[in-house]
Design goal:
Mean pLDDT: 92
CATH topology of the largest domain: Quinone Oxidoreductase, Chain A, domain 1
Family: Belongs to the zinc-containing alcohol dehydrogenase family.
Shape: globular
Cofactor: Zn(2+)
Low-confidence stretches: 262-269, 271-275
GO molecular function: oxidoreductase activity; zinc ion binding
Number of domains: 2
Order of helices and strands: EEEHEEEEHHEHEHEHEHHEHEHEHE
CATH superfamily of the largest domain: Medium-chain alcohol dehydrogenases, catalytic domain
Helix content: 25-40%
Radius of gyration: 20 Å
Protein name: Alcohol dehydrogenase catalytic domain-containing protein
Organism: Arthrobacter yangruifuii
CATH architecture of the largest domain: Alpha-Beta Complex
Amino acid sequence: MRAMVYRGPYKVRVEEKDMPPIEHPNDAIVRVTRAAICGSDLHLYHGLMPDTRVGHTFGHEFIGVVEEVGPSVRNLAVGDRVMVPANIYCGSCYFCARGLYSNCHNVNPNATAVGSLYGYSHTTGGYDGGQAEFVRVPFADVGPSLIPEWMDEEDALMCTDALATGYFGAQLGDIVEGDTVIVFGAGPVGLYAAKSAWLMGAGRVIVIDHLDYRLEKARTFAHAETYNFTEYDDIVVQMKKATDFLGADVAIDAVGAEADGSFLQHVTATKLKLQGGSPVALNWAIDSVRKAGTISVMGAYGPVFSAVKFGDAMNKGLTLNMNQTPMKRQWPRLFEHIKAGYLKPNEIITHRIPLEHIAEGYHMFSAKLDNCIKPVIIPGS
């Protein structure tokens, strides 16, 4: 089969790989019909995540058709159209029993620190991802779901991570009616978080980024106020001015490890690898929120030290909520919103790229070329 493979920082290409086999009776093999490049895939692409090995296939956002099932699979049949959550999880451990699928204890040798994801380095278990023609899906009776007949397949694709993560980010903010919510980052997850904040009762939603085309999308898709942080001497001071010098009720970090805005933080995190990520957006969130406010973090960071203003958070009495998203837990409510017309997830997709051109897709997404917000990969096209 043809699959994207990692060859080192900023180096990916499509190669011929062996078809994934059934390794366990509860496995399924899925023929991928749509995959996506996620902003967190760029952390791998840029060499920021530890134990990303040459030959690894990325991709934790994908949908497809069941090609083969193991002998113990009961919930899927060959030919089923399925959406596969980004998390790999057993469904029965201490954490899965509590709906914390992203913290599953049985799928990753590093499970004390992190659960498991498709195509996200050996730090999260080393499972190959869906930027390929076929992918092995473990625990096939637990993770995948049939795509509803009424749902557009690209809407289903967005539910496998980006939309679910943005929605979860708004949930972690514990938004109450009338709250002012600031979202740092106008990538796909930030756009979905801003849109979701309205569904949870926000009275005002502000999005901060430094790319005008993404801010324009935040205005048209998420109906948010927008600020380009490069236009202000200090975006935190501007946020204080915009909130009667109290600060926002909720701040959402939808950026994570590669935040711009501080040359020193960016260099030490992304170039010298001295931090698990550049915490600029998180520190801005801590400074921009009011005392006793709430910070939501679902931007991805690596597992090592980051220079976060924890003392400021403590002294302001902030609540910090964070986790990798348990994708499937969000689906029932997201399905309701999509069916009712409150969400149209595929509106943020800007590019559809053949699998064979995935190297160009990564470069375009990484370099923010051609107003790229969300690229979708089409195997076999």
